[in-house]
Structure formats: structure tokens, C-alpha cells
Description:
Elements: E1 6-10, H1 15-26, E2 30-37, H2 44-55, E3 61-65, H3 99-114, E4 118-120, H4 136-149, H5 151-154, E5 160-162, H6 170-179, H7 204-216
Parallel strand pairs: 1-2, 1-4, 2-3, 4-5
Helix pairs in contact: 1-6, 6-7
Amino acid sequence: MTDRPKAVVLLSGGLDSATALAIACDLGFSCHALSVDYGQRHRAELDAARRVAAAQGIIDHSVVPIGLGAIGGSALTDPQIAVPQQPTSGIPVTYVPARNTVLLALALGQAEVIGARDIFVGVNAVDYSGYPDCRPEFIAKFQELADLATKAGVEGHGSRIHTPLINLSKADIIRRGVALGIDYGLTVSCYQADDAGRACGVCDSCRLRAEGFRTAGVPDPTVYR
């Protein structure tokens, strides 16, 4: 249907973003998926993003390269920095400096170009790794920036940023996704997945994901190496 409102959905290929995409589709949006190749070491997630988009019937799926590895400073972009195998205190080394700021800026740009009034991002501030750019405060401030920084925003028809998962536990996210028919076996969440998408089972993302499936009472479809 051509009369459905357009939405840009940031799609990493992980569990959360796949759920955000399914929610946006369920709400009746014509979804335009946007994935970003930022030099992440777990590049299998980009293949997962393509699988998830195809499973949701998304016709417009863009993969934009930006190369945050040139900046470094994160275990996800610098192979010299090890991904922690145990929980750590504070903001972990898997935090990618400015990642969500950059990703949301790209989504904002695409939304303005295609005339989308809505942006969906699967950030979560409950069961997450402690990244500062996943907090509600960050999203609220970025919304203010979006309203000021774009032609559409200045003219009064800018994009609204939706964070449908931000206050949900990982188990609740999984329950919501299962109810929407998501095949989580298509997704990759591991910070150091191999080229086949097999998970390590010990990184922070793997631990949160596995615990989410256990708590939700849903069989974990993750393939571990």
C-alpha cells in the first residue's frame, strides 16, 4: 500500500533492532531499513540484517559504510582491544564512541530525503551494557537536535524518534518479538561472532541475550561455536 506512512528503522541485525523493525511494521509503517557498516569486528551482523529485512519483506534496505574504525577506541572496531569475557564495571570497552549519534544522524538524513516522519531505533536502557547513548536522556536531546538541525524540522514536519524497547527487559523484548513472529535464529548479537555468525557465548551481549531467552521461557535459537 502506498498510503502507509514511511519510517526509517535502524537495523543492526541483532535481537533488539529486529524487534524494533517488527514493531514498526506491525504499527502499519512502510519501513525503510538502514544498516551501517562502521567497521565492526562482528561483521556477520550485517548479513543478519539482510536476512531480517528479507524475512520482514522490506524492499528498501540500505547499508551505509562510514568506517568508525578510523577513530578506534572500542573493542568492536579495534582488533587490538580484546572483547571482555567477564562482566566489567563502568562503561565497557565495547562502547563505540559516538556510534548512536552517528547512526541516528544518518537515519535523520535518510528520513528527510524520503519524506519519513518517523525513525525507529532499538536502544534499551534496562538489560544493556551501560552505553551512554542508549539512555532516554540521550534520545530526548537528540530529538531536540533533530528538530533544529533539519529543513523538515525547522518547517515543522520533522521526524519523531521512536524507542519502543527502551524500558523493556530483554525477556520482555523477546516475548514481544515472538508474539510478532520474529525468527530470532536469523539475528546475530555476539560482539565477536565468527564469519558464519556463530556466537562466542561469553561476551556481554551473549550473556544478556541468553539470560533473556531463559527468563522469557523461550528456546534460545543462537548458534554457538
